[in-house]
Design brief:
There is one protein chain. The protein is α/β, with parallel strands linked by helices and 303 residues long. The chain is 50% helix and 13% strand. It is built from twelve helices and nine strands. Helix 4 runs parallel beside helix 5 and helix 7 packs across helix 9. The chain is globular.
Length: 303
């Protein structure tokens, strides 16, 4: 997803290039703050079309129209698509003569941020590096989603009114915000992968209840949250494969062994082949139990 910012905050048009669940949530936050949100569903999946049509977007016919209309473009796509989307936005800017500020809020390594920056710079576009911590913003929840930003023009994005979004500037260097994302995601998604393996192994040996009881001594709220957090991770597991590899690359560049998160990429790849992975996150029942999770996820589709 890409987001573009205007000079006049009250007139800012934000272009969301891939308006899925997170894109729609960000659009709601910015529209609630007085911005205009535009997007296109050309070439998008049925799910993205459904989410976009339910969102606060003005839907335009194609990417050129989005880039032409937007002052800020925000990209939130699977990690493997970040560079492709940046190149597409750069090409659209060249065709239309537009120069939006581009915010890359994808879960990518600092090295990948540099590749995105170079693609945009070739067409004279400025980059703000962004990373998101938390789920899609919901202004009415009272619990804001954090948006970390870095880059010379990061403050322009942080200053946009956006109820439900807590924007924090980390500095002037692109890559800093993404480095933080790689660190936080390594913990959140790494521990979720470990829990998934523990629960599925315990199910094989008939000790799931005992496992959760034992873990609850150290993690008191784990039991009530385990089923939904595990199920949510499985529904997003295909997307997480690339994110684990970006984390591995980030850790390798820091002089650490990349093997741990290369292995966790394999964990999420295997989870993505299970029946539950075909469920959209928004279609999960709110009262999901561990037994429900095991019924949906225990059998693998791997041949």
């Amino acid at each position: 997803m890409l987001l573009a910012v205007m000079d006049d905050v009250h007139m800012t048009t934000i272009g969301i290039v891939s308006p899925g669940a997170m894109g729609s949530g960000l659009a709601r936050a910015y529209v609630a703050g007085g911005c205009r949100a535009v997007a296109t569903v050309a070439g998008r999946s049925d799910r993205s079309r459904r989410l976009a049509e339910a969102g606060p977007f003005e839907l335009l016919p194609d990417l050129d129209a989005v880039v032409r209309s937007a002052q800020i473009v925000l990209s939130v796509v699977p990690p493997a698509e970040a560079a492709t989307v940046a190149a597409s936005v750069a090409q659209a800017a060249a065709r239309t003569g537009s120069r939006p500020l581009v915010v890359d809020a994808n879960a990518i390594s600092p090295d990948s941020v540099e590749r995105v920056r170079a693609l945009l710079a070739a067409e004279g576009l400025s980059l703000v590096d962004g990373s998101i911590s938390g789920g899609p913003p919901t202004p009415e929840s009272g619990v804001p989603t954090r948006l970390y930003l870095s880059g010379a023009r990061a403050q322009e994005v942080a200053d946009l009114p956006s109820p439900g979004l807590d924007a924090r500037v980390l500095g002037a260097e692109p890559g800093t915000a993404s480095a933080l994302k790689m660190c936080t995601a390594s913990y959140y998604k790494g521990t979720t992968a470990l829990l998934a393996h523990a629960v599925l192994t315990a199910e094989r040996h008939g000790v799931v209840e005992e496992l959760l009881d034992d873990l609850s001594e150290s993690f008191p709220h784990l039991g009530e949250r385990a089923a939904r957090s595990l199920a949510m991770a499985v529904t997003k597991s295909a997307r997480f494969v690339g994110e684990m590899r970006e984390i591995a690359a980030t850790q390798g560049a820091a002089g650490l062994p990349p093997d741990l998160f290369e292995a966790l990429a394999l964990v999420y790849d295997e989870l993505s082949r299970r029946p539950l992975a075909q469920t959209a996150p928004e279609d999960l029942p709110t009262d999901l139990t561990v037994a429900d999770f095991l019924k949906r996820a225990a059998s693998s589709g791997v041949s």
